[in-house]
């Protein structure tokens, strides 16, 4: 059995360190204060209840603290819940750090950056290459830290870079099969399409939307960034417009956040590759948690469907 | 009876100068070449047929030429059509010029500019005022020429400026009635919201969409413009973001082209004032062409409704 | 800090009179009876729990009673909740009455009625004036008491009259800016459009829908009322039909309750003014409760959006 | 082979009297005037072209005139068209009258009225019976003339009465099978539900929408009529409200014209019986015109479906 | 007052046998285990709470066990709830059996089968008759046991057969009124349309969806079954295709599960009869539980509407 | 310039053999018979008019005949049209055959079959392999002839096999990148998903829908076929169900013809690969016909979008 809170079964006991992702105070129906904690490690997260919480508890157990917890896994309204029997803050002698509790991409940062750089060198159109390189350079560091989304898919450290690299791989294969595709555009579009998320999301630990993210969104911000970069680099020509179009249209439809739908072949394909990789990421991770013959939880971002793992698959 | 092609009734004859807005060649079912001309003056436009067109006709009667036409108004599939009996190009001695055939805003350019400038001076927040002034200054000239749209509403010379001024007047009144409204934001939002159309549309004579307009649209372009202007003027602070948000959200819904809906009070009110003025412009112009007791043509941009003019209205 | 339950912050204690808007019995998960009370004053309302309620409590603490309450403001599932430590019924010596706990329009009844009457006298078409006056006269009294809706906007005493007066003011301004508008129709439409709510809603204290309201709705009832009034006053002519059309179409679309969409200019404008005033009322009241830099609660009737109050607004 | 224009096949010649339902002038692409006539008899209608029409022709061949025509049936854009070789107005000696060319219900007026009257007598609730009887009495005459709709279903003389009688028969059977149904309500609802069409439609010959029909529609008009009738007869009690609700809700959904959906069992069943009879009427008449193994024309009011007649049906 | 849990009013006490339909463990907010039981008899079902449940309770009180319960009916979040004061398992001496607690169709199995058989003999087309008879024979036994659905309508023992028989009766009456209808097709379609539910649903006691039901659904399974039956019986000809079409299209629209909409008259009518009988079943059973002047619970499968029972109906 | 009717520009003359795809008789507005011919070669198709057609012409120029045509390319309502100046039937001495005029897949049949066979051998699950092989064997011949659709994508000879092979290639690459994917299922799903089209469509020359295609559609037919094949081969186990599910769900949504959405990972991926290959096929062929800097025609199956070919692409 795999270890970690994401794999802990109902009825088992638990005794390990966890990171507090979220902490909320509550009052029971009989008037007693308690704490609801969302605790996580690299394998997943669980809701936990700390009954009869004291004022000291409220001050101690807050977001981004690491705690040592013992308790039992119960089920509540169809979801797992950890009933805490003892809890304490981690101290330096425990030798634990936040990064140990954050899920990471299955590929390390250096490899991700190397693959992105390699793809960048394959771009031959000088205007496209220069704009893309300038922007990647500017965002090098956060790009290797950030998740690709606050939830749903690639929602782990380096998730955005991992998503980009997977998409580049699909794109590379498609360019072999369909030589009509313009690899320069497709690669640049993949690298830039979601970089606005670095400004839209707050970071990797307790990911929320920033004010800019709420009022503008990552797509218009990235369109602006490309325009500004082109101006700084004194690049003119249709490449600027087309690259802005790829970013602007990559959600595919107005209802999904792209005021203009894809009107260039590579924009359409960028949209489809984005869908394909995001869905595979969600499906693989959900199916990894169930046995053959079982259904996954309902996946919100897949129209709330629960997926079946056939018995003849291991 | 009002004079002009927009008011010419079926069965009447016509003899005057008109501007060619569009010219298309065709072949009759018996194999003879003809020309379909869209002819216009300040009151409207009409489709006309020139049968048995010669090669010389095809070369002479092209877009943006002025012609002297005699003919009769017929009806074809429920729309008026001009059957040409004679046609010739205008020559210098006729003393006619294109601007005479283009519909103009009912208010002259100087007055429009004066009203916009007055409103600009009412803006007290220095960041908002500086950004707005810089952009208006840059686009001063085309702003006073351009229509507000290729069709539907304010589709005449100075239409965009006229739309802005009408909206400013409504906004001014609303700010009196609801003092909570932030006039600075509302005025700046009104002045900037549609300026992206100066890059989205080709101009005032035969208005079409530019490539930039098709692939990006006026909203993302204007968001970018505000960002660049702020950077040039070294303006920082929430005003930049909020002004970008007002422009981004002014179509009200994702399906209508705003990837983010209005999330600031003045953004919501900007959207409603825009709707109100555009609809009144369409309704007033359509109802002006019918008599009491009649219905207007179906108005495409008003969900294809035909509006009724009650008999007790003059 | 403003006084009243609508402004009470989490963690503060509360000690004052409140009106019971709603009272429901419940059983705790351990089998003990308790009361859930919705308590209100003029500034808002709050859910309160009275644990270990006796049979006497159940009989005493019912809808429309005034109580003296002490307790503490907690938070429960993201909403404020009052934890009652002591409660008693108000007695005559307390000198409190229901009207003190009902939120009132910010304008008094006499002023509202005066403004409505003034607008009535501006109507020049005799048929429109007579019908409107007869109906207003019939409903004079409840009109000045009723809210404009059970919730969402103008949901306070005299809310309907306040909504009408605000709309009349907007309409007056628009008629100055767009002289084509028929002020008679627009004013009459505004005064009558929602009067069916006097039959659709139960009243001002604990507003619910009546059986007539559920099975017919205020729009068809008001169309009928106009028809009957015209018959009684022996008024004939298109004015009756057009006035019925304005009321029938004022929700704008079939999906929103208007089986016929607006097909007369003033009907369209009535719909837009109704939207504009309702939205401004909701926005101003929600933003009044938050500080600059904060978002409001989600507003159900505004597509569930939370609105932002920029930091540069006071 | 059945006789009449509705059954005339492509390539056959035609020589008989027809009624002009509609007449429009046109100009050919070579500038010659012609007339487009919609001609009908009891079996259907056809478009006809009269080429080289003279001024006299235009004056003679107008709506509601009977003509004697010879010509040939051609096909034009997938629809039958009559190419006229000779035409003349009918004169008194021809012994033809309009009513011969109007399609009639397959049941005669007396029988229809008798069946309606019988059903009326089955209603036992005195309030329901008195209201229904009063309204039927008022509309006795046009009810037996009018079609049930301008097109789609029961669009023939006495069509409305025929539709009512068919629905009453279905309702009678359902009341036997489901004795819980309140026959009084169901019968009254069936008899009244569409009577507003007598005011919504212009009549039986060239059926169009009246101004009242366009601006109010038959549903709100009939709700008003029931209210007025109850007032005149001094009937009070829930029966009035419920009967108004049945009429108001009989289109089933807001999008289909019922601002309130059915909230009473008999209202829901009225809606379903209405659908059932209207669809059977459309299907039977469309299938009657094709042979086994063929598809009907696309039926607009059936989501544009073409229906198949299996080869094993005669 | 009718007897049974479906009719038990709030505040009354209860003391009788009930069947456990569902059992779930829970933990109170103070950490104590309890059981949530869904208990049923022939008149309905109720949620019950067994507080302070022991390990023995958890093992004893499981699905499909009969228990003797005493307790009181409370209300919790607007729904009835049984607060258990004592509970024990039924023992053989109690003389109760599961079938006594399952709701049954109001018509017995023999009568249902007789009516189906009679209708089968009315089918004259030999191909249609042979296919229908073969399939009915194969499914004879489960058909008389199964409900027509897991919830919403005819969700009781023999519910599927009862639904079929009611539909056959409506169809019989419609064939009298509209002789154009092909009774053979309509009867066969009614008998076969939902038989796929015998494979889609798990059975009659605690009805859930099978894996086949979730991944294929009853409609495609039945289309396949008809095809296989025809092959076995060596039946060819259009009857096979048309019968498959009737089953395939009987949900009316793609969104409702029919990839092809009805394109044969009898398919359309089958769809409407199915709707009519299902809705009447839901409405009659819901209205049976309320008094005149009251609304029913919201009916999920009727667009969540609550229906009103007029005061003048007994 | 590429040769063939698909590349012929307006104003050029044409003189070559073409295949008649469709022939319709018409009557001009002056009463003269003419023929409308849809003519095609391997590069595309064009509408042509043969004026003053004789009875002999009507008999000679019918579907699937090859003709030698001279004429000129005109434009009519925005589409190219061939004005025929001379025409004659091809005779044996011309040495032309139908297959020369039918567009073919860019890969030959042998290669296509070889690639399908290779993929078949990669399937390791014996049940999946046996079912797939049996069905492919049965349909070997038509599979290599048929188009993948009547229009939109892969609408050429061997189009279905070409679509399958392209999809297999994408799937192969994805299985390398995402080793969690079950290649057996994905390959089998790709090979079988559209084979129902062999029964749904009439063939390759003038492709129309068969009666079975209209009343059932290719998806339910293929689900049935898999079930029958499994029965014949006496294969049991979940593989049958899952394979049926893949075919049933491959259109992705009920509205698009899949009554059950994908609920197995490989079903979801099958749907996405299908989309990806179909869209690339449409885009590549449409873009191949325009120059850099131009837009394609509107593509109906791509939400009617016109796609832009950037100037920097050759």
TrEMBL record, chains A, B, C, D, E, F:
The entry's protein name is 3'-5' exoribonuclease YhaM
Record keywords: Exonuclease, Hydrolase, Nuclease
Q: Where is the HD domain?
A: 163-279
- Alphabetized Gene3D superfamilies for the sequence: Hypothetical protein af1432, Nucleic acid-binding proteins
Q: Which GO terms describe its molecular function?
A: exonuclease activity; nucleic acid binding
Organism this protein belongs to: Compostibacillus humi
Q: Which domain of life is it from?
A: Bacteria
Gene name of this polypeptide: yhaM
Q: Which InterPro entries match?
A: HD/PDEase_dom (IPR003607), HD_domain (IPR006674), NA-bd_OB-fold (IPR012340), NA-bd_OB_tRNA (IPR004365), YhaM_exoribonuc/phosphodiest (IPR050798)
Which GO BP terms apply?
rRNA 3'-end processing
Q: Note the CDD domains from the entry.
A: HDc, YhaM_OBF_like
């Amino acid at each position: 059995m795999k270890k970690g809170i994401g794999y802990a079964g109902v009825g088992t006991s638990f005794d390990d360190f966890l990171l507090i992702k979220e902490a909320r105070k509550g009052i029971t129906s009989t008037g007693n204060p308690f704490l609801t904690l969302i605790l996580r490690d690299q394998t997943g997260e669980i809701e936990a209840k700390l009954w009869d919480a004291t004022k000291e508890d409220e001050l101690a157990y807050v977001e981004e603290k690491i705690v040592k917890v013992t308790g039992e896994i119960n089920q509540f309204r169809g979801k797992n819940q950890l009933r805490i029997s003892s809890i304490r803050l981690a101290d330096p002698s425990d030798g634990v750090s936040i990064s140990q509790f954050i899920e990471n991409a299955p590929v390390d940062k250096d490899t991700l950056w190397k693959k992105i750089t390699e793809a960048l060198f394959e771009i031959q159109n000088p205007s496209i290459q220069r704009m893309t390189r300038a922007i990647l350079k500017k965002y090098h560091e956060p790009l290797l830290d950030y998740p690709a989304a606050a939830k749903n898919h690639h929602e782990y450290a380096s998730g955005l870079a991992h998503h980009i690299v997977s998409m580049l791989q699909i794109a590379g294969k498609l360019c072999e099969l369909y030589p009509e595709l313009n690899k320069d555009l497709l690669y640049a579009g993949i690298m830039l399409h979601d970089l606005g998320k670095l400004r839209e999301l707050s970071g990797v630990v307790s990911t929320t939307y920033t004010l800019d993210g709420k009022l503008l969104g990552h797509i218009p911000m990235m369109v602006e960034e490309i325009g500004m970069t082109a101006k700084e680099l004194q690049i003119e020509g249709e490449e600027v417009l087309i690259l802005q179009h790829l970013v602007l249209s990559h959600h595919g439809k107005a209802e999904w956040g792209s005021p203009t739908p894809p009107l260039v072949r590579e924009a359409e394909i960028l949209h489809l590759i984005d869908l394909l990789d995001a869905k595979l990421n969600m499906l693989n991770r959900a199916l990894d948690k169930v046995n053959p013959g079982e259904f996954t939880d309902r996946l919100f971002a897949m129209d709330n469907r629960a997926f079946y793992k056939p018995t003849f698959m291991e």
